[in-house]
Amino acid sequence: xxxxxxxxxxxxxxxVIVVSAxxxxxxxLQWARQKGLEYILINYRWMFVCxxxxxxSFFYDLFFYFRNWIVFTLNSAPKQHDKRVxxxxxxxxxxxxxxxxxxxxxxxxxxxxxxxRAGSYKKTLQNISxxxxxxxxxxxxxxxxxxxxxVTMGQLTATLNPLGWTIPVLPELDDLTVGGLIMGxxxxxxxxxxxxxxxxxxxxxxxxxxxxxxxCSASDNPDLFYAVPWSYGTxxxxxxxxxxxxxxxxxxxxxxxxxxxxxEFIDTFQQETLKADGNEFVEGLLYSKDxxxxxxxxxxxxxxxxxxxxxxxxxxPWFYKHVExxxxxxxAVEFIxxxxxxxxxxxxxxxxxxxxxxxxxxxxxxxxxxxxVPPKISLLKLTQGETVKQMYEKYQIIQDMLxxxxxxxxxxxxxxxxxxxxxxxxxxFLLKNQPGxxxxxxxxxxxxxxxxxxxxxxxxxxxxxxxxxxxxxxxRDHNGFQMLxxxxxxxxxxxxxxxxxxxxxxxxxxxxxxxxxxxxYDKVNRKxxx
Length: 530
What we know:
Elements: H1 2-8, H2 12-43, H3 45-74, H4 77-97, E1 104-106, E2 126-128, E3 135-139, E4 144-147, H5 153-160, E5 165-166, H6 178-183, H7 191-194, E6 201-207, E7 213-217, H8 222-227, E8 237-244, E9 246-247, E10 251-259, H9 262-274, E11 281-286, E12 292-300, H10 319-324, H11 326-329, E13 332-337, H12 338-342, H13 353-356, H14 363-369, H15 377-382, H16 385-395, E14 397-404, H17 408-418, E15 424-431, E16 446-455, H18 464-477, E17 481-482, H19 492-498, H20 502-510, H21 521-524
Parallel strand pairs: 1-2
Antiparallel strand pairs: 3-4, 4-8, 5-9, 6-7, 6-8, 10-12, 10-13, 11-12, 11-15, 14-16, 14-17, 15-16
């Protein structure tokens, strides 16, 4: 210390202070280098979200709300649609004329979709701009709505509900698009009655690999009609779809059924799902292995004002937290406005907002900034950076696994053992025995359940890849399916074992897709995504 003191010209006491400060500073840098940056990015990301992404998301939504209202009011979408479709055709024809050197995909940036990751394949494939974002027509006489592929669920409810109509299966989040729900998959708490989103579709319009337009329905070109769902844009570019519409009431009557044992939850969920009459909507939230709430709901115009709960208002508690309270308070009934019910998980992005803004459900935050929640999922992806991506892969899981309802008990045990992650979202659906990529093994309609796991697993020794592989094996062994928006580590052979490629392969050959579009597996496996 004397040598150091002489060298820097300070007395011994001051030298001790300086050396101590240097040691502390060095240790701090080392901590920041090893884990501090990760910690800051994960735990203080809320500052960036609150002061930048929330305002940006609000004004983005505001702009498109008025833009879509003007387009629909002026009825300009049909004329613009034909022009935009011709543009897609011309891009495909130019691709052919230039030698078809690379396979094609849409030019939509990967960060704009709702899946966790962006497709790295977009960097090497020929990008085709498919800028189709409007509701073309609401045909009350035929009971269909014709829409372009980038129309969102928020657009549909904002347009149809005031007219007294809705679609039979309307998936949760505002930003989910019709194209994504057809080319991928869509599900909602009415799916035990109506099936998946694809089962409510009447017809599709596509631009094929040769630049021609094809239309298909269950009666006109049915092979293509049944092959399109789950095909992820590998049979052609979807440019419009007709969806069935049904009369809508103004409210839903929701009954909350708290359960306090594993057996009680399984029995209640299955009984309410399989009821022949009533229960237009069924949903379960599991808060631990042995406690959860089963919810049933039916549309109605008759409301008890004392039990009205407009849960979608920005100052209201997040829905999943509201539901959790019934584990203590007991069975109850509420009336919720229909559109609020449809988008009940939107404000909290199910429960992922608690990891983004930990205090987001605090009454003061909801009162001051709740009107801007949630941030756009696309903007969250765009701004997360490589470190946050790696952190999410290391510590988070986002998966939806579809298993037969009869295996629900074993499935919950498996998810608890592998993840110990709650809440779990449970949504029953009828898997119809129709041709295509996904169908029941028994060649008859079968009731399935979607088990959604979103968040940070609490099981000791969690390893993302190994854990997901074990979940995938469990699902395959029980004749189930994996939603392909999430990370999939299936091998090509395992993928073909899980999904029926018979009709899909036939249509790819018939439509000359092999040199025009990649296979589904090459777009959805983990290696194909950033």
